[in-house]
């Protein structure tokens, strides 16, 4: 057996602490709701729904380098002016994220984590719709990178407008 140098182990431990870290600690359903406000009458009309999906994310720092990220998805199916079903799912995850520059940290929390949570939320929604005896609902994939980039662009524009307004007030 080869001997290990204690100095090398200490150096390796130090390097590991500086390397970016990302780990899923837990994925769970935080809140689920399924409503069919116009049943059973809605089952007698021809099935040509207008389906809308709204997505939102929020996050909070827990202890140390641990974060909770919650992906909220609301799907509403309407036929004419009547709601066939309304599904709300909050899929959450606890992630350990460390040693990332602020830009990468924001991207991880705002894009990567929701991307990991989305398949779980999509499956929950599909199962709920199926149990409500409606035709299958298959949600299309979501490009969270594009949504995050759009959000960051909006934040930058708002900051520029705020800065411009402050300069006008100072003049």
Automatic annotation (TrEMBL):
* Localization, UniProt: Cytoplasm
Task: Print the keywords alphabetically.
Answer: Chaperone, Cytoplasm, Protein transport, Translocation, Transport
Report the Pfam families cross-referenced here: SecB
Q: Which residues cross the membrane?
A: none
- Disulfide bond as a keyword? no
> Which family is annotated?
Belongs to the SecB family.
Q: What does this protein do?
A: One of the proteins required for the normal export of preproteins out of the cell cytoplasm. It is a molecular chaperone that binds to a subset of precursor proteins, maintaining them in a translocation-competent state. It also specifically binds to its receptor SecA.
Q: Which NCBIfam families match?
A: PRK05751.1-4 (NF004393), PRK05751.1-5 (NF004394), secB (TIGR00809)
Q: How does it assemble?
A: Homotetramer, a dimer of dimers. One homotetramer interacts with 1 SecA dimer.
What's this protein's name?
Protein-export protein SecB
- Species name for this entry? Catenovulum sediminis
């Amino acid at each position: 057996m080869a001997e290990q140098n204690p100095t090398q182990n200490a150096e390796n431990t130090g390097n590991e602490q500086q390397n970016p870290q990302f780990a899923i600690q837990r994925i769970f359903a935080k809140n689920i709701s399924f409503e069919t406000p116009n049943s059973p009458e809605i089952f007698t009309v021809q099935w040509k729904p207008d389906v809308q999906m709204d997505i939102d994310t929020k996050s909070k720092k827990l202890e140390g380098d641990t974060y909770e990220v919650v992906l909220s998805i609301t799907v509403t199916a309407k036929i004419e002016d009547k709601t066939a079903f309304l599904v709300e799912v909050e899929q959450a995850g606890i992630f350990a994220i460390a040693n990332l520059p602020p830009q990468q940290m924001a991207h991880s929390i705002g894009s990567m984590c929701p991307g990991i949570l989305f398949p779980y939320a999509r499956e929950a929604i599909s199962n709920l719709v199926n149990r409500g005896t409606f035709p299958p609902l298959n949600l299309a994939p979501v490009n969270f990178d594009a949504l995050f980039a759009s959000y960051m662009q909006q934040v930058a524009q708002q900051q520029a407008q705020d800065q411009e307004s402050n300069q006008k007030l100072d003049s």
